[in-house]
Design goal:
single chain, mainly alpha, 9 helices, globular
Length: 197
């Protein structure tokens, strides 16, 4: 009987610790409210460590409301200019201001969004796009876009209906289960080292 009580205490203690971390993680992300004491050598605060542990990420705020829908309606694909490195390797990449200006030196120059892009070019500053998808280092995932594109996996499989969006949003929860199910459906390799390091 004492063994059951000891297990109950252990589970209860773990639940309290996890709950405290979850509450901390969901709390304010205002850096002025974060503790200045170091929690670990890896994360400056308990809140930041808990947010990473529970994979709680803020939605990225883009500097320009890039109209994905409009560009796709015009016949461009994800890998034409904006994310062309996806066909060559692991990273899809984010377009530089020079990439945008390949077309927009002459096209739609009177539009406010294009004028914002042109202002970035004039000042010599690249557009500070925020990454929408990505795995934390703790996930130990080594994702490579190129083999997925060669296997004819549509961008929307992992990134949602970007063609219907203005600003890209994180609409697909890229969990291990999501990836394993897709690999099983497509008879792709499913051993650990296919994705993890």
């Amino acid at each position: 009987m004492p063994n059951v009580i000891d297990r109950f205490r252990t589970v209860l203690t773990a639940a309290v610790v996890v709950s405290a971390l979850a509450v901390t993680a969901c709390g304010s992300t205002d850096s002025s409210q974060l503790s200045s004491t170091t929690f670990t050598t890896a994360r400056p605060t308990v809140a930041q460590a808990a947010r990473e542990f529970f994979d709680i990420r803020q939605a990225p705020v883009q500097p320009i409301a890039f109209p994905h829908k409009r560009h796709i309606e015009k016949g461009l694909t994800c890998t034409d200019y904006c994310h062309e490195s996806a066909t060559k390797g692991p990273v899809a990449g984010l377009p530089s201001v020079k990439t945008c200006m390949i077309c927009h030196d002459a096209i739609a120059t009177d539009r406010p969004l294009v004028q914002q892009v042109a202002n970035y070019q004039k000042t010599g500053i690249d557009i500070p796009w925020q990454r929408v998808y990505g795995y934390t280092h703790a996930a130990h995932v080594r994702f490579n876009h190129a083999p997925h594109l060669r296997a004819k996996v549509e961008c929307s499989t992992c990134h949602g209906a970007v063609a219907q969006q203005t600003v890209a949003e994180r609409n697909v929860d890229l969990t291990m289960g999501f990836c394993v199910n897709c690999h099983q459906q497509k008879n792709a390799p499913n051993d650990c080292l296919t994705c993890h390091y």
